[in-house]
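1st attempt posting a full record on here, be nice pls
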Amino acid sequence: MRGVSLLGVLWIVIGLIVAATHHFFDHVGTIGGILSAIIAVLVWPLILLGVRIAIVV
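the predicted structure (as tokens):
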């Protein structure tokens, strides 16, 4: 059985911090807000480069 890599955990933790500091968790009451937050966590380097992610459903 394969475990979770340290790099993967670190990627998610940094993504959570970046998404939180850029207010992606403020609108998780909608499905679009939830999807935007998930994507922001996964692609956090783009957020730091200024890319704004917003899923509108």
